[in-house]
């Protein structure tokens, strides 16, 4: 075999190998670790939503055991973290492990009340892109009152960027859900959803990066009214896929 033919054959083998690997990655289920604890929720309809997601497998880990799974080594067992917790205690060791996991590129989707976790850990708001404040806080030197919530509000959600992978194919929609008001949204994030509902912040979902990780926060998701909403379900599914790089 001539050198030219040998070179062409090797390139073809490499192409086929790369294509096969890419196809396997596209068809392999996304492994999701769902972190809960610190806040009650309607378990059956919540996990039914995840069972309905095509191409996704999941497992739940509850606090206080969750931090042992949020490390670079344990992170090899899953592709995406979904935070649905509202937890406060965290050791310095666990903080560092979580940061290193995200800096390595692990995808993160944070839902609803996870915005209020780790009130005394300032780096967490940079990870999520915002914070629900339990106490008075300052923004640009101005004191703000604590964040608020309101149950069972019917309101309209506006899609800011219909071309983003998280919101693609989703039109403006109505939802019955819990609203949050006066929470912090960092200026670096990319807004995905807004609302004009007066009991809520205007921006209620966003995307950004932390280290090498894609991060999405979605304020919606208090109970079955949200879990069963088709637009919300698609939003969460597409957020998981996007942070996983699919």
Can you tell me about this structure?
With 246 residues, this protein is of the alpha/beta class. It has a single domain (30-243), classed as Class I glutamine amidotransferase (GATase) domain (Rossmann fold). Helix content is 29%, strand content 31%. A 9-stranded mixed β-sheet has the order 2-1-3-4-13-12-11-8-9. Strands 5-10 form a two-stranded antiparallel sheet. The longest helix is centred in the first third of the chain and has 25 residues, at 3-27. It starts with a helix and ends with a helix.
Topology of this structure?
Elements: H1 3-27, E1 30-37, H2 43-51, E2 56-62, E3 80-85, H3 92-103, E4 107-111, H4 122-128, E5 130-131, E6 137-139, E7 142-144, E8 148-159, E9 173-181, E10 184-185, E11 190-194, E12 203-210, E13 213-218, H5 224-227, H6 230-243
Parallel strand pairs: 1-2, 1-3, 3-4, 4-13
Antiparallel strand pairs: 5-10, 6-7, 8-9, 8-11, 11-12, 12-13
CATH class annotation: Alpha Beta
Number of domains: 1
Helices and strands: which structural class?
alpha/beta
Q: Termini separation (Å)?
A: 40 Å
Q: Order of strands in the sheet with the most strands?
A: 2-1-3-4-13-12-11-8-9
- Rg, rounded, reads 20 Å
- Number-wise, the strands total 13
Number of helices: 6
What is the helical fraction, as a range of percent?
25-40%
């Amino acid at each position: 075999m001539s050198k030219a033919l040998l070179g062409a054959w090797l390139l073809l083998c490499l192409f086929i190998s790369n294509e096969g690997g890419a196809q396997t990655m596209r068809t392999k289920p996304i492994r999701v670790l769902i972190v809960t604890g610190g806040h009650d929720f309607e378990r059956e309809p919540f996990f039914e939503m995840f069972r309905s997601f095509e191409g996704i497998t999941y497992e739940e880990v509850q606090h206080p055991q969750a931090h042992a799974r949020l490390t670079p080594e344990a992170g090899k067992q899953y592709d995406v973290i979904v935070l649905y917790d509202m937890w406060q205690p965290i050791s310095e060791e666990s903080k560092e492990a979580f940061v290193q996991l995200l800096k390595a590129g692990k995808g993160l989707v944070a839902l609803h009340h996870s915005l209020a976790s780790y009130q005394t850990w300032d780096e967490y708001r940079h990870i999520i892109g915002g914070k629900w404040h339990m106490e008075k806080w300052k923004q640009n030197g101005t004191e703000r009152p604590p964040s608020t919530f309101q149950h069972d509000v019917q309101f309209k959600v506006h899609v800011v960027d219909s071309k983003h992978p998280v919101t693609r194919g989703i039109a403006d929609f109505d939802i019955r859900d819990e609203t949050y008001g006066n929470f912090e949204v960092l200026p670096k994030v990319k807004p995905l959803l807004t609302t004009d509902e007066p009991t809520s912040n205007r921006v209620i979902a966003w995307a950004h990066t932390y280290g090498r990780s894609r991060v999405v926060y979605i304020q919606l998701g208090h109970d079955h009214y949200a879990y069963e909403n088709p637009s919300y379900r698609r939003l969460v599914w597409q957020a998981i896929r996007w942070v996983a790089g699919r």
